[in-house]
Amino acid sequence: MDGQDRLGYEQRLALELAAIGQRLVTISAEMREHSAAVATAPPPPETHAGTPRALVVNESSPRALGEGPQQPWLQQPQPPHPAWPQAHAGSFRSPGAHEGAPRAPQQQPWPVPPPRETLFEKLGKDGAGAKLLAWVGGAITVLGFVLLLILAIQRGWLGPMPRVIGGAVFSGALVGIGMWLHRNPHGRTGAFALAATGFAGLYLDVIAATSLYEYLSPGVGLVVGLGVAAAGVVLALRWDSQTLAVGVVAACAICSPILTEGFTVLLVGFLLVLKMAGTPVQLQRRWPGLAVAGGIPPIIASLLTTAQAIPADFEWTVVGVAGATTVVGIVVALLTVWKRPGDVVAVGLVAGSALPAMFATTLLKDPANSILAGAVAAVLLAIWMVPDLPRAFTTAAGATGMLALFQTTVIALDGNVRTAVVLAEAVLLAFLAAQLTRKSALVGSIVFGVVGFLMTVIQAVPISWLLHEPRYLAVSSGDYAAGLVTALVLGVFAATAPWAALKMQVLREPARHPFPWIVAGLVLLYGAAGAVLCAALLVSPDESGFLFGHSVVTVSWTIAALFLLVKGINNKALRISGLILVGAAVLKLVLFDLAALDGIARVLAFLGAGLVLLTAGTRYAKLVASAKTPD
Known about the structure:
The protein has 631 residues and is mainly α. The chain has 23 helices and no strands. Helix 7 packs parallel to helix 9 (265-284) and helix 17 runs antiparallel to helix 19. The longest helix is centred in the first third of the chain and has 31 residues, at 3-33. The two termini are 71 Å apart.
């Protein structure tokens, strides 16, 4: 091929590539224009085997009949360019040269999700008005039934027995009418509302017969109520209607406090009966609404019942019902998460169910209150340690268990011992976090540590002990002993928490993430200073012990800085920590020791710190030089 033929061939090739690019641009614009229509339209049927659906044209569509522009990706391949050189047809073919080769199916556009319906669109649907009217009518009917019972009692209409029988007959008639309407598919909306209203009326009638008229003992009333609620929920299961089940349970739970005349132990019992009646169905079906409607009311009622019983000292009946609410709630939550591991309602129930028992400790005296709180903490922390349960569920149980553990510590202990135990719990949680790789345990450790540090600074080892001489303070030797233990545990926590976070890869090295390490170092210095000073004052609780303790603190900081520098020759983080500690020791010498100490204590502090720094500087220089010298 001479130069002129080659030039013409390259020009024609460029024209073909430009034409292909233009066609791709057209295809892209056409796909964007019709993406919504393609996504919502049903896929065309296959006309014959082996033909991709993306390449089949619906012959009845406007584009197939010649109406509107044709879609380029559905057109037949074009023949080769007429001027294509025949000499090179075998070595370089046009896009249409292989007409017999199978073509890859075209990718369908990404389906566009339909827009969410607004409230007005939902109300505008066929049958929405009937559903709304039916359920609103049912709710008003239940409320009217309750008001009729109250008014009949106030006005003395009929007798107690006719009221109970009349309410049962009326409610049973509503259930029967609902079951009769359910046979017709067009009348099922009203059937659901009538059945829910009837069962709610029957349940409230049982409560009235038990609470108001005392025809039934509490035990018998609870059993009868369980049967009524179970019948309503079973009918909802048979009709496959979560709305009916939630309607029955919610209506009974909302109207029950009116008939029990407030929040009482009997009310909590009837609400627990509702929860137990709905649990088997909500475990069998994925009905989170039923779990919420049955799980939340007993918790709220138990808390309010306990709050009303606080002025009357303690009531073992209230405590027992609160404990039953906690036990039933935790058991139901465990069953739910075992049946459906991803259920969010179970996570909320395991955390909320512990609150009634924890709040009921306010009604008890020592040691019963701490035993109850400790039992709740033990159960929840045991659930937290189970490895096979979902992480969200165990985290919720662990967080509530840690709260119960803190409550147990606060109730059972007092004084400085309480602070030391809180800090010891923080250390234990940090070790658990490092061993089990649980971030929830690390968070709990930090929370316990922060609370323990505040308790230390305010009560166990206050700042005034480090700044003022003992003659200005009224502190006993027992307080110094407790302060010594607390300060030591605080120092252990300040070293353990960053170590656990570093091991879990939550925290980086000091050189890359210095702020948390600086905070931990300051807490460690406070703990170390408090321990040394409390030990000195425990030996000599006067001015000499105070001065000697501060001298030892300054020298010990300097020695610790030397140790970090020596160990950190090949570790940048330790070197930085050592230099910071040197600066802290010098600042303490200049700002505190020079003004607060006098006599031999000031001399010992300055001489000790100075000699250590001189020795450290000389020795450290030799170590750095030897480390840089190759073997």
